[in-house]
Amino acid sequence: MKILSVNAGSSSLKFKLYEMPEEKGLISGVFEKIGLKDSFYTIKTDKEKIKKEVELKDHEAAFKILMEELMENGVISSLSEIKGIGHRIVQGGSYFDQSVEVTEDVIKKIKELSSLAPLHNPAAIVGIKAAQAVIPSARHVTVFDTAFHQTIEEENYLYAVPYNWYTDYKVRRYGAHGTSHKYVSLKMNEILGRYNTKLITCHIGNGASISAVVDGKCINTSMGLTPNAGLMMGTRCGDIDATIIPYIMEKLNLTPKEVDTFLNKESGLLGISGVSSDSRDIEDGINHGNKRCALAQKMFVKRIVDYIAKYYVEMEGCDGIVFTAGIGENSISTRREVLDSLKILGIEIDEEKNNTRGETICITTDNSSIPCYVIPTDEELMIARDTYNIVER
Ligand code: AMP
User: Fold this and answer.
1) Concatenated DSSP letters of 293-325
2) Ligand 1 atom showing the smallest separation from residue 357 Cα
3) Nearest CA to ligand 1 atom 15
4) Which residues are designated catalytic?
5) pLDDT tens column, 106-164
6) Ligand 1 pocket mutation, candidates 184, 331, 359, criterion most atoms within 8 A of CB
7) pTM of the entire structure?
8) Do strands 217-221 and 139-144 pair parallel, antiparallel, or not at all (unpaired)?
9) Distance of CA 359 from the midpoint of ligand 1 (Å)
10) CA 20 to 30 Å from 97, out of 150, 180, 194, 284?
11) What CATH number does domain 193-379 carry, 3.30.450.20, 3.30.420.40, 3.30.390.30, 3.30.110.10?
């Protein structure tokens, strides 16, 4: 059965088509600059990667071209072969603790939650409607980034602010990257060969979050109401003293939108280094003696260590630590610095095994108190799995 996994942004559309239940990826790609000038798409198959420049008026136009490409590439012979389409949704609020089939009510709720994910939820609705218009015969399923975190107890998801901010305005921790944390924790349990485990999963990319997962259920996570909480990130500040916000708004005469831009787009690695949000550039800067890059990296690592230590204590131990996403999978130095700071817990890195990028591997020695792994994440596959399960049911 063919299942299409899609991730619609305001001007982009990422996709991957799977043969399920074999979980075989058939073709993937991304449409970019939808509705803008110079739009184009890239498509990757087993054999080749192609890029085409084409006018993409809207998401519906992108889906139409995608279907033509799937047929031209011989992956499908008719649209009806695609039985399910899974749509990634960033914010599912407290409404969704699992993936669900799209209905009018589901769309209404995703829309209602738009103020919590203004860049993502409206774009996802556009993606769903476009996909429904082009491929009406398929079943459409929504897969929420927040769903995995819905098992968190209220003492961990509530903020110490007036209680009615929660009841009236839904102010609470929702978390993010849930699909990724779920995928790597499942994989880690498979590797360990048991499911009664205490895991710490570190999704460290441009956006970054850490979760504590007990027996496959998330009990805490570092992201909050929005994806700007917890760790320091590429351009996001993560946890800060909340009163910095009114203080700096007054000093610089900023509007809420302006201060939000500073905290989301001009902080983190970029804000501290003044050089870049990309950890490769930071590494480069450090190698060239740039002190602010060195400081940015030190702060970045320290915050990861803080969260791992916190969750180790909260879970009363840990059976495995996982690194995933762009930096977690590829930055040898970041992993080394994090694990070196955790020596006190009996963690011992294997330098040789850590000298790797983008593959599943244990990076600690046999003597290490906790095995630490790199596990490449696969959010598209999780979306396809959930979609397949719902369509099959
Ligand atoms: P993601 O958001 O998961 O796509 O991760 C993106 C981030 O991964 C980039 O901003 C880079 O900082 C980081 N990254 C990707 N490749 C490497 C690499 N080879 N070494 C260090 N960092 C990397």
Assistant:
1) HHHHHHHHHHHHHHHHHHHHHHHTS-SEEEEEH
2) 19
3) 326
4) 145
5) 999 999 999 888 889 999 999 999 999 999 999 999 999 999 999 999 999 999 999 99
6) 331
7) 0.95
8) unpaired
9) 14
10) 194
11) 3.30.420.40
